[in-house]
Amino acid sequence: MQIDKNEFRKYAVKHHRINGIYVDKFIAGVENTQLPTAMTPYIIEERQLNVAQMDVFSRLMMDRIIFLGDAVMDQNANIIQAQLLFLQSTDAKRDIQIYINSPG
């Protein structure tokens, strides 16, 4: 299942009334995550008749994995909650995994 970040943005803003600016900043932050030069933030996904490049966090979201690698603040907590609810709304029977690497 392909999860479109624009589809998630619409869901977060419309259904959970999260400010669109915060969602855009969150998405931009995920896309611009600074990783060591030995690592790449993009994955080349090869499927039958199709090759796509995507950032690591979009790929994790496709696999129903949410990663929190920052301090828990109001805005990113709301976005994480919206991600959880969005994934539940797409398929309520499949598990969702969340990984937290946070100082608090």
Annotate the secondary structure layout.
Blueprint: H1 5-16, H2 20-31, E1 42-47, E2 50-55, H3 56-62, E3 65-68, H4 74-90, E4 97-100
Parallel strand pairs: 3-4
Antiparallel strand pairs: 1-2
Helix pairs in contact: 1-2, 1-4
Task: Summarize the structure in words.
With 104 residues, this protein is of the alpha+beta class. It has one domain. The chain is 46% helix and 19% strand. The strands form 2 sheets. A two-stranded antiparallel sheet has the order 1-2. Strands 3-4 form a two-stranded parallel ribbon.
Protein traits:
single chain, 104 residues, alpha+beta, two-stranded antiparallel sheet, 4 helices
Instruction: List the uncertain runs.
Output: 35-40
Mean pLDDT: 79
N- to C-terminal distance: 32 Å
Strand order of the largest sheet: 1-2
Number of strands: 4
Largest sheet: 2 strands, antiparallel
Silhouette: globular
Q: Could you provide a short overview of the structure?
A:
This protein is 46% helix and 19% strand. With 104 residues, it is α+β, with helices and mostly antiparallel strands. It has one domain (5-100).
